[in-house]
Amino acid sequence: MVEAAVNENPDIPGFIKTYSPPFPVGTASGLGALEFMQWPQGQRPLVPLMVLIDRTGMIRAQFSGLDANFFNDDEDKHIREEAEKLLKEGVPRAPKSAPKSKSK
């Protein structure tokens, strides 16, 4: 898990002191975050913005403040359910390498 503040001049040390997150916290540009999420142009984003990325770097789910059924009193449960879906998939297997030929 990673946290990225997209607001201007975020107080990262204050956030860390207040919430003691057990994951990295940093910043990202708001426009860069929306481009990464492939947010539809012309649709106003509403925070929070959350993206779940699988082990291969693919966006598998994303939510915004527009998703009232996700960000509600059960949001911790919803986040856990989405994360567990990805965790159950396990680590992708490395492709098998061709057998090494013996030199004579």
Q: Main sheet: which strands, in order across?
A: 1-2
Oligomeric status of the shown chains? Answer: single chain
Main sheet attributes: strand count, strand direction, barrel closure: 2 strands, parallel
Order of helices and strands: EHEHEEH
Strand element count: 4
Percentage of residues in DSSP E strands: 15-25%
- Terminal CA distance: 50 Å
Structural class: alpha+beta
In round numbers, the mean pLDDT is: 88
Number of H/I helices: 3
General description of the model:
The chain is α+β, with helices and mostly antiparallel strands. It has a domain of 44 residues. It is built from three helices and four strands; from the N terminus they run E-H-E-H-E-E-H. Strands 1-2 form a two-stranded parallel ribbon. A two-stranded antiparallel sheet has the order 3-4. The model has no long low-confidence stretch (mean pLDDT 88).
Could you give a short description of this structure?
With 104 residues, the protein is of the alpha+beta class. It is built from 3 helices and 4 strands, in the order βαβαββα.
Features:
single chain, 3 helices, 104 residues, two-stranded parallel sheet, two-stranded antiparallel sheet, 29% helix, 4 strands, alpha+beta
